[in-house]
Description:
The protein is an all-alpha fold.
Amino acid sequence: MAQDRPTASELLAAIADFLREEATPALDRAEPRLGFQMRVAVNSLAILEREARLGPAADQREHERLRKLLDHDGTLDELNRKLAGQLRTGSRDELDAALMAHLEATTADKIAIANPKWK
């Protein structure tokens, strides 16, 4: 059973903060190559934290959009496969405004997790 506090997201953020603010500067001075690798690790932890915090709601929004777009029920994976099939056969394309709105919203959610500073 998960603990109430700190949440997994809070733990990941705390670890990333410590590594970013304390460990990385020390590694930069002692071994710049390891400092760079630490920054990569810190960025990865930050992505994991955002995914833990934002991912479930983003998945739910995507699932709802797909159910409406496809007028079909199924898991998120099943609906994405169905949409991919429609795109491959050409039964949906970039002229479909609902499709484009779904893709833009899904991409925005994914970017918010992967790199929120990107605009």
